[in-house]
């Protein structure tokens, strides 16, 4: 047969289009899109019948924490490149962008990149790249931005909170200026670390230490203030920024205003801000610790509605998982790390921040049935590819150009609604914050570069560890390059 694989009669969806097509794959690439019924079954070695099902470019999860040291002061992330990417493919994700974290004591970003690349080499089930996480922007680190670009790294993340990571405003400006000069997109974790410490002290003084007070310690204003400041710093340097994991309507509003002014401000949100509330932090005992992440889940339905609205109206560019897993019942992290000799009942400030979610991101969002299929693809695949310089190799289905990375769903209404259970997931974590939540869809097949790596009804994860490749990235195609140098005299 001429083709390696054909996918017949599916409803093929891209960010731009939806229609019934046959799709043909050869040598790992999309080779042909033709009207449904066009391709003969004998034209390929493998035939997938997708009658009645959505066929989409594979999910791109541009915010995943794997094999990270205890940078946030508490616990090591539970998933490594093997278990984290295994979980990704089982959830329809074909490329992840994880973090290469610089610790304050490390001066060379290239060393950080090399160390992380070694952790991932020959381990991954899906394709991957890294964002450099910068906690100490020394002159040497800044000078390495050009070399990072040559290595295919076109994005960095910085923090406005967490003692081990927080940058001062002048350091943020140093980073943004060099990012502008080298065509790097800067992701910013926007929470005011000083306000957070002060709020935490107020709660401690009143002995309010249960998991739900994690949310109390981080009110919306702490997020919207930092978001506003991050945007102002980006405007001063006139360079693109992306605000990561936005949880609050007030921060989304600040972002919307900046976008309306024409500033190159992008934003990300995550399923936890669509499906969890602060009540989830208030479960009996210390169970609420399982839903602690930063920023925290907000109050309730009105907040979720505002985030859904932001997904629909373009305030949010991408929907990522912020998969940042810790084992709950583990000596090193989770529960035990939050329960110390000093605080035998536990203290919210010792709970590692972050939830697992790389596997549930697509199914949860698809099952909610709130976005058009094209918008879904835009937010979960096409836009992350464009924003981070992977497009159109990833995030698209352009014959000859795009890798044959696909997620194929079940024909509509063929799955009975079923509960998410941690036992069915493929991460190395002992819980999911979505346990028992009912959903109605799950990826049936995941293909990466033409190979079926997930076949839910026949073998589950059928890809292999080490198949995933490091993908070199270009500069963002969502933003224009800035040809003129930044000059202080222009102010
Ligand atoms: O709580 C979270 N989001 N943990 C992950 C670390 C981060 O800031 O993204
Ligand atoms: Zn033909
Ligand atoms: Zn963050
Ligand atoms: Zn994160």
From TrEMBL:
Domain of life: Eukaryota
Residues with the N6-carboxylysine modification: 157
Entry's Gene Ontology molecular function annotations: hydrolase activity, acting on carbon-nitrogen (but not peptide) bonds
Stretches assigned to the Amidohydrolase-related domain: 54-452
Any single GO CC term annotated in Swiss-Prot or TrEMBL for this entry: cytoplasm
Family: Belongs to the metallo-dependent hydrolases superfamily. Hydantoinase/dihydropyrimidinase family.
Post-translational modification: Carbamylation allows a single lysine to coordinate two divalent metal cations.
Pfam families tied to this protein: Amidohydro_1
Coiled-coil intervals: none
InterPro entries the record matches: Amidohydro-rel, Hydantoinase/dihydroPyrase, Metal-dep_hydrolase_composite, Metal_Hydrolase, Metallo-dep_Hydrolases_sf
Protein's recorded name: Amidohydrolase-related domain-containing protein
């Amino acid at each position: 047969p001429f083709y390696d694989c054909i996918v017949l009669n599916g409803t093929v969806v891209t960010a731009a289009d939806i229609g019934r097509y046959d799709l043909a794959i050869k040598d790992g690439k999309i080779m042909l899109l033709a009207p449904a019924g066009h391709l003969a079954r004998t034209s390929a070695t493998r035939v997938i019948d997708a009658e009645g099902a959505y066929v989409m470019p594979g999910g791109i999860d541009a915010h995943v924490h794997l094999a990270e040291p205890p940078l946030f002061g508490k616990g090591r992330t539970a998933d490594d490149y093997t278990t984290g990417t295994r979980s990704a493919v089982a959830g329809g994700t074909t490329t992840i962008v994880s973090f290469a974290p610089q610790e304050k004591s490390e001066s060379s970003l290239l060393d950080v990149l090399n160390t992380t690349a070694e952790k991932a080499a020959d381990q991954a089930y899906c394709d991957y790249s890294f964002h450099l996480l910068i906690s100490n922007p020394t002159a040497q680190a800044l000078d390495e931005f050009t070399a990072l670009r040559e290595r295919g790294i076109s994005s960095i993340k910085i923090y406005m909170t967490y003692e081990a990571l927080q940058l001062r405003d002048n350091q943020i400006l140093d980073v943004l200026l060099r990012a502008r000069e080298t065509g790097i997109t800067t992701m910013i974790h926007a929470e005011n670390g000083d306000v957070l410490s002060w709020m935490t002290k107020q709660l401690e003084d009143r002995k309010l230490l249960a998991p739900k007070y994690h949310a109390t310690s981080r009110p919306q204003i702490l997020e919207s203030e930092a978001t506003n400041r991050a945007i102002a710093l980006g405007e001063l340097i006139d360079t693109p920024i992306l605000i990561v994991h936005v949880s609050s309507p007030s921060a989304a509003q600040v972002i919307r205003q900046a976008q309306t002014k024409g500033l190159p401000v992008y934003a990300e949100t995550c399923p936890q801000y669509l499906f969890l509330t602060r009540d989830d932090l208030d479960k009996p005992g210390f169970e609420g610790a399982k839903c602690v992440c930063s920023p925290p889940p907000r109050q309730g339905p009105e907040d979720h509605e505002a985030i859904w609205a932001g997904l629909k109206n373009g305030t949010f560019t991408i929907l990522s998982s912020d998969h940042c897993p810790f084992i709950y019942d583990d000596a090193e992290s989770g529960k035990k790390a939050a329960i110390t000799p000093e605080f035998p009942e536990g203290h919210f400030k010792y709970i590692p921040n972050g939830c697992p979610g790389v596997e549930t991101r697509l199914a949860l969002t698809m099952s909610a049935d709130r976005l058009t299929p094209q918008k879904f693809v835009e937010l979960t695949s096409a836009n992350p590819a464009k924003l981070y310089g992977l497009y159109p190799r990833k995030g698209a289905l352009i014959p000859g150009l795009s890798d044959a990375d696909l997620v194929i769903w079940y024909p509509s209404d063929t799955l009975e609604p079923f509960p998410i259970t941690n036992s069915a997931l493929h991460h190395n974590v002992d819980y999911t914050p979505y346990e028992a939540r009912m959903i109605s869809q799950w990826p049936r097949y995941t293909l990466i570069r033409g190979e079926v790596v997930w076949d839910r009804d026949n073998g589950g994860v059928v890809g292999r560890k080490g198949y995933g490749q490091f993908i070199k990235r270009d500069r963002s195609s969502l933003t224009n390059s800035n040809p003129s140098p930044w000059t202080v005299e222009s102010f």
